[in-house]
Write a structure and sequence with these properties.
It is built from 4 helices and 2 strands; from the N terminus they run H-H-E-H-E-H. It is α+β, with helices and mostly antiparallel strands.
């Protein structure tokens, strides 16, 4: 048995891995994975006063759909957090964050600019 890709989905994942590795250092992915593992958005207090949150969802993502992001937004708001939600239109579902989707980077950049101006 070989470990070569046999199925179309495997070829797709191979392709996405190549793109991902060309754009990001592998250590970055490991670091972000660690941060996500320890992040508890529903802690007693979500963060220091003044911390703002941006929840982004993609309209075609069936893994973490918009309803999931809206749930997180509602839970954080119940804890007194300042939360903004953006739903981005994209045909690529859960992989949208890997793509150059119109509106995605602009939403993040706008949120960061607004946050730094406070």
């Amino acid at each position: 048995m070989t470990m070569e890709s046999d199925f179309e989905v495997e070829h797709y994942l191979d392709h996405q891995a190549e793109i991902f590795l060309a754009r990001f250092d592998a250590g970055t992915y490991l670091y972000l994975s660690r941060v996500m593992d320890y992040f508890d958005p529903f802690a007693e207090r979500p963060a220091r006063p003044g911390t703002r949150f941006l929840a982004i969802s993609f309209d075609s993502d069936w893994r973490f759909g918009t309803e999931h992001s809206l749930h997180i937004k509602a839970e954080l708001e119940a804890l007194g957090a300042d939360v903004r939600h953006e739903e981005i239109e994209s045909p690529w579902g859960h992989d949208s964050f890997l793509m150059d989707v119109p509106g995605y980077q602009e939403a993040v950049a706008s949120f960061l600019v607004e946050s730094s101006a406070r």
